Amino acid sequence: MRPLKLYDKAFLRPMLEEMVLIRRFEEKAGQMYGLKKIGGFCHLYNGQEAVCSGAARAMIRGTDILLTGYRDHGHALALGIEPNRIMAELYGKATGVSKGKGGSMHMFDYEKGMWGGNGIVGGQIPLATGSAFAQKYKKTGGATVCYFGDGAIHQGAFHEAMNLAALWKLPVVFICENNQYGMGTAVGRASSVQDLYVKGQAYGIPSKMVDGMDVIAVYEEVKAAMELARTQNQPSFLEIKTYRYKGHSMSDPAKYRTKEETEAYLQQDPILLLKKRMEEAGFLTDEEYKEIDKKAKEIVAQAVDFAENSPEPNDDEIYAGLYA
Amino acid sequence: MAIITLREALRQALDEEMARDPNVVIMGEEVAQYDGAYKVTKGLLDKYGPDRVLDTPITELGFTGLGVGAAFGGIRPVVEWMTIQFGLLAIDQLINNATKYRYMSGGQFQVPLVIRGPNGPAEYLSSQHSQSFASYFVHVPGFKVVAPTTPYDAKGLLKSAIRDNNPVIFLESEMTYGHKGEVPEEEYLIPFGSADIKRPGKDVTIISFSKPVLMCLEAAEALAKEGIDAEVVDLRSLRPLDHETIYASVRKTNHCIVVDEAWPQCSVGSWVQSVIQKDCFDDLDAPVELVAGEDVPMPYNHRLELAVQPTVAKISSAVKRALYRS
Fold first, then answer.
1. I want to staple A56 with a disulfide (CB 3.0 to 4.6 A). Which of A78, A273, B11, B179 is the partner?
2. Secondary structure element (H or E) that encloses residue B32, with its range
3. Residue B141: beta bridge partners?
4. Are strands A236-241 and B204-208 parallel, antiparallel or unpaired?
5. CA B31, B36, B37, B38: dihedral to nearest 10 degrees?
6. Which of B183, B206, B236 is the last residue of a domain?
7. pLDDT in tens, chain B (326 residues)
8. How many CA atoms lie within 13 A of A226 on its CB side?
9. Are B57 and A116 within 8 A, CB to CB?
10. Longest dimension (CA), chain B
11. Full residue range of the structural domain in which residue B294 is found
């Protein structure tokens, strides 16, 4: 665990609030899915909150760009996109971030740097090199963060993009959120090597493994990598080890792993760890935490109300937004 | 008016658009130091430098996806595929990203991207390098697809493609890079969705695009000697399709054939055939015949490879059948 002592309450508290909000948001999304308010594929982020929340604090809002896969609700929340509009998107409503045309896998807010939300495993990785190419070419001073899962790392898209990023010196940070399962297949059954970060070394890209349950470690490593990208156009690769508590998607009961395994990970829950350490450092009382949790539940309840009461898209939306 | 090759017309279009807009960049295999596999990008590296003319590794998925992402960020990439055949490796990035991000984000993204390269059969290349894949792209909403035949059309359409804010698939033909034609000195653009009547006629309409248009024109000249006055419509733009020009011609001649060098099933030609038969049913005096490539992979042997493609003789025979003169 990285020491907390470099950080003050003003930095830590909003991060904890955000992680709790993401957890409560995903729990509610799961409930609403059960009630058939949300349909299709829905991949929940419970357990992985430290990754997107730590990394988001290393990003410059409005300048840096984020692309990810289909498990994207947390990333959207961490970029400051309103929970109301994310929930409305899950409901397929006109007020959703993507006007109800994207759904769970396609959360977009172009101006805020949320460039999706991609439903094809690894499909976003070449796009991220392109985003970084544009940032470098236009000298925006920004960099791109590209998330993908451990399942995506064997796709050609990953390897082709890593090579191009290194060859053309593009300001991009590749983050593999290794939650240890590509759908129902454990990493060891899909990868010829156990440590995925070594794959970055093949392209001469600085590569590291990071503890994804320690939000401070995530923040510090992504911050360093973003600095390299911004100042030297040096791409980096971080394998961030994490764990998802839920199945791959709503239809997955996760029978391929044991209760003991999941229980063991719950003991190192990223939210509980941060809470405990903030309490030890005198930054948080149990009372304050209860207040944070209560507030998160209220925000999520409001998001559900907003989504419930929002209109469906009109039929004239069918052909809208196809061509520029 | 200057007479130049189609290759030179494409080069001029790239040059003019790069001079006009600093966000236009070219990337692809051998486009820079080698001057392009077909020399379309000749001299552009020297003129615009390595930041704007970029040689890529042989990774079509990677550099095409990079082009799509760069287009999201306001760059206007012109991505060259050494052949459209290699594009199959990259097609996921186009179909799932280039044509989807605008729609599935509720209209937030623009994708000013051009993909260009040779499509369709050349010579002696056997099965993997002689396929016409126009329908792969024309099938997908979100693309614009053009396939010029003449240097004049190639230049005007490529300039429009580069200025378009949507992903454009620009289909060329290896066999016609040396084809010559008149191109004016002054600047011009050709809008998408506009077919061109390459030869006016009153007896029968021959509709085609890309390289086979040249065969259609040759067939029309031969037919003229037999007293058949054929109108040759060059589609130029496959998506959007110029229904008006097609229908006006068919309504005038009442007889029509379609020529497409692709395989017949679910091809651009079969689609054009179907819309004419649906929308001009009462105007037709004969069924619309499709002269297509034979439904087999391309054989290497020259006699066989010519036998499986549309030919002047096959086009002439189809016209005569349509006119009940065979």
1. A78
2. none
3. B143
4. unpaired
5. 140
6. B183
7. 999 999 999 999 999 999 999 999 999 999 999 999 999 999 999 999 999 999 999 999 999 999 999 999 999 999 999 999 999 999 999 999 999 999 999 999 999 999 999 999 999 999 999 999 999 999 999 999 999 999 999 999 999 999 999 999 999 999 999 999 999 999 999 999 999 999 999 999 999 999 999 999 999 999 999 999 999 999 999 999 999 999 999 999 999 999 999 999 999 999 999 999 999 999 999 999 999 999 999 999 999 999 999 999 999 999 999 999 98
8. 24
9. no
10. 60
11. 196-322
* ipTM of model: 0.96
The domain that holds B138 is classified in CATH as 3.40.50.970
CATH number, residue B302: 3.40.50.920
Annotation marks residue B305 as catalytic: no
Residues 6+ positions from A318 with CB-CB distance below 8 Å: none
Residue where one domain finishes, among candidates B152, B183, B214: B183
**B243 carries an active-site annotation:** no
Which of B24, B29, B105 should one mutate to test binding to chain A, selecting the residue with the greatest count of A CBs within 10 A?
B105
d(CA A251, CA A255): 11
Residue type, A273: L
| Beta pairing class for A207-211 and A172-178 | unpaired
Count of other CB atoms within 10 angstroms of residue A86: 26
Joined tokens for residue A197: 């970060």
Whole-prediction pTM: 0.97
C-beta separation of B159 from B151 below 8 A: no
Structure tokens at A296: 């998160």
Residue with tokens 């015949």: B289
For helices A270-280 and A49-56, give the axis angle rounded to 10 degrees. Answer: 60
Q: How many C-beta neighbours within 10 Å does residue B59 have?
A: 21
Q: Buried (b) or exposed (e) across A273-288, using 16+ Cβ within 10 A?
A: bbbebbeeeebbeeeb
CB-CB contact of A199 with A102 (8 Å):
no
Q: Cβ–Cβ contacts within 10 Å for residue B125, how many?
A: 16
Instruction: Collect all residues of chain A within an 8 Å Cβ-Cβ radius of residue B73.
Output: 65, 130-131, 133-135, 138
